[in-house]
Amino acid sequence: MSALLLLFLAVTVTSFPQLPVAFPHTQAIKSDIRFISEITPFSEPEQINDQSLNVIKMLLTHEAPHLNPLVIDKVLTTLKCATAYNVDHNNILTIIDYSLPSNEKRFWVFDLKAKKLLFHTYVSHGIKSGALLTNFFSNKYNSKASSIGVYQTQQAYYGRDGLSLRLDGLDRNFNDNASGRSVVMHSGWYVEENFIKRYGRPGRSWGCPALPLESSQAIINTIKDKSLLVIYYPSDAWFAKSKFLNCDKTIPQYTNSAAIQIPDIAPDEQRDAILFVGSGYKGSKHAETKPVTVISADTYERVFHTTAPLTRMLRRQINNAEYIALNARELFYLSNNTNPDSAGQEDGINAIRFVIPVLKVVRGGYYETQMQFVNLGKIKAIKINGTLARDNSLANNFTVYFEGNSSVNLNAHNEFIRWVGL
């Protein structure tokens, strides 16, 4: 009887489907993010062997003739090692070559199954990784730098930068803090081709690979959900220590003469002191900072006959226009070159604006920092408080007089401001 009962239990247990197990959400999912409900099914994991590697090499060489052979070599090794480590991935492959300057197209997306190039465009790097050239990388929190190595794409979601893509860093000590650092792929108005052609390079993110607005949505929807992303740079440490480049010692490696040692500390980028409104301003005590003195990028280039400096450009546009934070010498020039017959025109002191950052709810409940003009009145005159210093630089304090309103002081500081500088 007992044997019969055991047999019955064994049959019934294996006949019923197992119930799904629900796992609680982790705190890593932030409150300002909503996951996309429509998830596109992905293909079965790609199995890479020597024959398929040769086919992929021909594909990359043919479809992307300007892709560096050294990059192709490391990508092929990555694909082989990903198979060796049973990394789940589909047929989409994305490559970023950070050895190229940021004003060149250095982002490729390939469909390995269809054997074709899908996208080739621009991509930004972190603000601490360099200006035009990318020469510093970090896996550390709050580094504001890009991270090299192999990633697996995760879910797409809507956040403060619109449609974005979570990235899971698979390369230990090179990018495995990417998720915790909130390094994601998103769009950026400062990566558009027109912006790059005008200012000489794209703006910079805080470590995220930002894409042009016009193509980011199509790219993210193509590469989401377990595709491989390889962010390349000829780092000697990455070449020697990445498990995705060293799983097969029989693969011929390029000599270390092609590699570069990445510095341990980010190069110090000199920041110009910009002008903040000081005493005399009676704004909100809860504001992030006092108002900053700016002019539009169009006016800046017309008045000063030079390209507007991205290091002092606001990280948010105002009414689809870029604005530049002024330094003391520029303010002094504007105050002494105002045409008295130019009232109401963008000329001299009439071009000066004051802005503050404000948090606003956008896209159904997400908070976004936006820039807002502060109306302190029509400027009547600007007086420099002090004289030229010994090094022939201006004093860093001004008084601005308004028609019908109280005057305010402007003070120059070079402190880091999170919403100034691209």
From TrEMBL:
It comes from the Bacteria. Keywords: Signal. Residues 1-17 form the signal peptide. Pfam families: YkuD_2. InterPro entries: YkuD_2 (IPR032676). The keyword Cell membrane does not apply. The keyword Signal applies. This is Murein L,D-transpeptidase catalytic domain family protein.
